[in-house]
Design goal:
The chain is an all-alpha fold and 119 residues long. It has helices at residues 15-27, 32-39, 48-59, 90-100, 114-118.
């Protein structure tokens, strides 16, 4: 839903959501990101930096050049690609992040084509 401040989208939050965010910020200060990282896929132990990166990717980015008429506005959305040895829990972490995201999509490269990934 576009807001009146130049077309940026604001999430729909209820008063209950706002109260929860304020209480969480006060109770977990100054370790909010660590608490969020631990809550993402708790079945996977460790990988705090990876989990924190996924949490930040879920938070999204800021559109670039939105108010500059001479430049093209580019997306600030963050895409995630995990590469590593088998058995580290990459798929489980990405599935958990995709489930937590309102518009998340988990795509496995084994079952998709190059044309499908670019679309």
């Amino acid at each position: 839903m576009p807001a009146s401040d130049g077309g940026t989208a604001a999430p729909d939050c209820s008063l209950k959501d706002l109260r929860f965010v304020c209480a969480f910020a006060q109770q977990c200060a100054p370790f909010q990101l660590a608490h969020l990282a631990h809550s993402l896929c708790p079945a996977i132990l460790g990988h705090e930096y990876l989990k924190a990166g996924l949490i930040l990717a879920l938070a999204g980015g800021v559109r670039k050049h939105e108010r500059d008429a001479s430049s093209v506005a580019t997306r600030g959305d963050v895409h995630v690609l995990l590469v590593g040895d088998p058995g580290l829990g990459k798929s489980q972490l990405l599935r958990a992040a995709a489930a937590a995201a309102p518009r998340g999509l988990y795509v496995c490269s084994n079952t998709s084509t190059a044309a499908g990934l670019t679309v």
